[in-house]
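Record 1 of the preview.
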Amino acid sequence: MAKIVAVVTVKGAEVGGGAPTFIAPDETKLQETAFLLEKIMDASAHDLKNGTIILVDHQK
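->
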């Protein structure tokens, strides 16, 4: 079972839930933040193609 550990988005008002959310001002910063967090958290980044990237922990 995978677990969402963070959300990075350019659409802060449209995202909610229990995972930490990082709001980026533009697509470039969105990518930079998501891929830096991916390395730090040892997670996988998945681009939802709507201005949001989720970081998922696939470990058991």
